[in-house]
């Protein structure tokens, strides 16, 4: 027997062992499925199990009740594309390819409805979590918002580990829920009912249907299903039946469109309706797993790509979407990067548990690698969460977590959080155990910790080298110019 085959068998044996405190079923011959559901701009406290009072999320709350809820888990970045890059590759944004929401194709790539827009692509040779599952013989599908390279570049989802994709290739186009087209497996799918600005077919519903179809199609083989829903990212748009669920949500003054995106007569009810509509779609995924007799053999994750926002009529303050945290989307403050994170696996994860383990999106790839009995790529920043999920000893911990965006830097080091808002500015220091809201800068009182934080922030680089501008490989540039 080859050593690699032995490691795989050892890995499967490990996940089949009864978990302490769990009435585990007999070991299963079939390898576990994995589902990762990602919300877009959903705040730490935007769902009921994290303290939300105004918006109803019974299905997400049920996930937490039947699984594990993390209280100190972080997204990959304060904005969309780099956050998704860390989730796919296992690198934080000090090492990852994509560190900002940068567009390809010039100004024309920013036009809503454009078929040529897209973000900087992942480069050829990138190893993603999709590749990890493909290598293990899994069916892989991604349904929702991609944002890591348009069709025809090396960032195309079907070149980055996914057998099937349906949804928005360009995250800028995802600023409307009534697009005139989406993408399926490299081809444009025109939505005639939404032609010329009509609002007839809601994109979220189409995406959810495709995810459900993937489950049915692959029910007899192991699969990895990635569902990066666009909700609740603005624009504020939702069908009338979801809006009607929050008729009593008052006050609800109209949004005039002055902060971008489209106006809405009832923005608060719309936002809440969007979140609840997503919650229903998640409930349908869970119900379908049970219907197909896949529930007990499927590990389901739920999270959000970054914190909440006040853009486009959204009101993070009204919903208290960041909870006790400081800052919103676009910032390296806790409110910009700390997110809900839930994992559920019947018979393996102790139901109703809460974990204060400090983790981040770049842990997902190595977690899946350990689950599959595979070796993760060398040099990545992530650490497997599987021991925590299964209630076992031996969980490794991060020395630190790191984020950077537009000159901002943030570091989590144990209970300490360092924030530097611009290069060459003083480092602010906070003790999150005593000051979760990051209100009291104690840098002057702890020069030794500040010195350690500075080492992490610079990592041997000069100040001018800390924030390299990320660009696609030359071959991608040339392709973009031809299109």
Any low-confidence stretches, pLDDT <50, length ≥5?
1-28, 463-483
Proper CATH architecture of the largest domain: 3-Layer(aba) Sandwich
Count every beta strand, where a strand is a DSSP E run of 2 or more residues: 16
| Strand content bin | 15-25%
Q: State the CATH superfamily name of the largest domain.
A: Alkaline Phosphatase, subunit A
User: Structural class of the secondary structure composition?
Assistant: alpha/beta
Helix content: 25-40%
- Overall geometry comes to globular
N to C succession of SSEs: HEHEEHHEEEEHEHHEHHEEEHHEEEEHH
> How many domains would you count in the coordinates?
2
- Strand arrangement in the largest pleated sheet: 7-6-5-4-8-1-9-10-2-11
Output the CATH topology of the largest domain: Alkaline Phosphatase, subunit A
**What does the main sheet amount to?**
10 strands, mixed
- Please, how many helices? 13
Evaluate the radius of gyration: 22 Å
CATH class of the largest domain: Alpha Beta
Average pLDDT, rounded to a whole number, is 90
Measured between the Cα atoms of the first and last residue, the distance is: 50 Å
């Amino acid at each position: 027997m080859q050593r690699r085959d032995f490691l795989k068998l050892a890995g499967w044996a490990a996940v089949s062992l009864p978990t302490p405190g769990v009435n585990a079923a007999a070991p299963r011959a079939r390898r576990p499925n994995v589902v990762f559901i990602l919300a877009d701009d959903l705040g730490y406290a935007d769902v009921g199990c994290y303290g939300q009072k105004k918006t109803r999320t019974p299905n997400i709350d049920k996930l937490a009740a039947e699984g594990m809820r993390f209280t100190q888990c972080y997204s990959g970045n304060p904005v969309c594309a780099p956050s998704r890059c860390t989730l796919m590759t296992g690198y934080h944004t000090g090492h990852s390819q994509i560190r900002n929401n940068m567009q390809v194709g010039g100004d024309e790539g920013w036009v809503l409805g454009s078929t040529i827009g897209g973000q900087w692509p992942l480069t050829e040779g990138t190893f993603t979590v999709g590749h990890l599952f493909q290598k293990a013989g899994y069916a892989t599908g991604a349904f929702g918002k991609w944002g890591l390279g348009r069709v025809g570049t090396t960032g195309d989802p079907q070149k980055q580990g996914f057998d099937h994709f349906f949804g928005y290739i360009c995250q800028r186009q995802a600023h409307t829920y009534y697009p005139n087209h989406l993408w399926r497996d490299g081809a444009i799918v025109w939505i005639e009912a939404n032609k010329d600005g009509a609002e007839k077919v809601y994109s979220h519903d189409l995406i959810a249907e495709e995810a459900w179809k993937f489950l049915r199609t692959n029910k007899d083989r192991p699969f990895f299903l990635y569902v990066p829903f666009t909700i609740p990212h603005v624009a504020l748009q939702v069908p009338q039946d979801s809006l009607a669920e929050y008729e009593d949500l008052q006050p609800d003054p109209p949004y005039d469109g002055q902060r971008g995106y489209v106006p809405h007569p009832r923005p608060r009810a719309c936002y809440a309706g969007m979140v609840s509509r997503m919650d229903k779609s998640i409930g349908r995924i869970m119900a379908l797993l049970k219907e197909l007799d896949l529930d007990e053999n499927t590990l389901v994750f739920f999270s959000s790509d970054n914190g909440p926002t006040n853009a486009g009529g959204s009101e993070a303050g009204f919903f208290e979407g960041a909870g006790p945290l400081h800052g919103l989307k676009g910032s390296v403050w806790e409110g910009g990067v700390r997110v809900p994170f839930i994992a559920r696996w019947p018979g393996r994860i102790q139901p109703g548990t809460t974990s204060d383990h400090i983790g981040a999106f770049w842990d997902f790839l190595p977690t899946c690698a350990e689950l599959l009995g595979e070796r993760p790529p060398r040099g990545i920043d992530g650490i497997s969460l599987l021991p925590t999920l299964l209630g076992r000893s031996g969980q490794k911990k991060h020395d630190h977590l790191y984020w950077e965006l537009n000159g901002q830097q943030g570091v989590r080091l144990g209970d300490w959080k360092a924030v530097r808002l611009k290069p060459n500015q003083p480092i602010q220091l906070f003790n999150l155990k005593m000051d979760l809201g990051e209100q009291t800068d104690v840098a002057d009182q702890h020069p030794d910790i500040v010195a350690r934080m500075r080492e992490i922030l610079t990592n041997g680089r000069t100040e001018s080298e800390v924030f390299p501008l990320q660009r696609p490989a030359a071959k991608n540039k040339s392709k973009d110019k031809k299109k």
